[in-house]
Design a protein that fits this description.
Blueprint lengths: L2 H23 L120 E10 L4 E13 L2 E10 L10 E11 L2 E11 L2 E9 L4 E4 L2 E4 L5 E2 L3 H8 L6 E7 L4 E16 L2 E12 L3 E8 L5 E8 L5 E9 L1
Parallel strand pairs: 9-10
Antiparallel strand pairs: 1-2, 1-15, 2-3, 3-4, 4-5, 5-6, 6-7, 7-8, 10-11, 11-12, 12-13, 13-14, 14-15
Length: 347
Amino acid sequence: MTRAHRILASALFISLATHLLMLASAGSWWTPPAEEIPFPIEASLVPPPAKAEVVPAPAKPKPKAIQAAPVAPATAAPPAPSPVLESESVAAPEIAIPAAAAVAVAPLAPVIETPIPIPPPSPLPAPKPVVVEPALPPVLRNLPERLNLRYAVRAGDGGFNLGQAIYSWQRRDGHYILVSVAQATGLASLFVSGKLVQTSEGSITAHGLQPEQYWLSRGERRQDTARFDWGAGRLVQGNSGVALPAASQDVLSFPFHLAMTVDASATEWTLAVTNGRKLREYHFKNLGHEHLKFGEHEIDTLHLQGSRSGEGTLDVWLAPSRHWLPQRIRTLDQKGKVMVLSLEEAS
């Protein structure tokens, strides 16, 4: 045998030994032939088993805060179903979802809102005190269009007769004019000469008389004057001015203002009165009913008295049965001088 023949025989021997070892390690090397499959073969599609779903834990309620909405994790698309033959005895293997494919959504940590401190409101300014004017009585009655009244003038209560005063009253188109002319008579004319004239004129309003001008004159010379500036709320007396209270009157108009406005049930009120030199605020009281003699008759009157400490008093007696006209007017000045006017004639 040549060298070439020996090398070929060795290679065959090694190959045969290798195949024998492989067959031995594989167990039984002989497999019976498969059974004959009858024809025709029927096939149907069976859906794969349902995929296990990962249900996330219920999320805790989140505080009301502005947060970005969580993005849902992307899940891999399920594999396309493959047809399975009913004749196959081997069940389809379950597809295990790897842990990496299920993305666990961790609940977001609650956002704690830090409250924004609100500064306390600034205090409101203190309200200004409201000045309450004295209550004004309503108009209860109107005086006649024309009146002529004659009063006897006496010095003191029941004292010496000085003379007489003639009052003339007129009203027209919401305005009035009241003039008083006083003149000494009898023995008094020997000591007092001339005439004392007082004039008050103004408007008639829902609250009674509203004087606009007052003046007192002896002869041709005016001595005391007062101008009521209701728009500006000022009373000009001579060359000076003061604040003008509501419903202010002069010494000539105030009895007729009360005749128009007084309420018999009222007990107290205030009224400012000027004599052309000074404005004084009097505190009036209702002193009740009194009977006064008028000629041969007695009439019922309502006695009203206005007083001011150190400034004297103003008294008026009004007759309800005679248009509430003043039957008596009495003035007491700060020097103690008393002047009484008693009605003797009215027309």
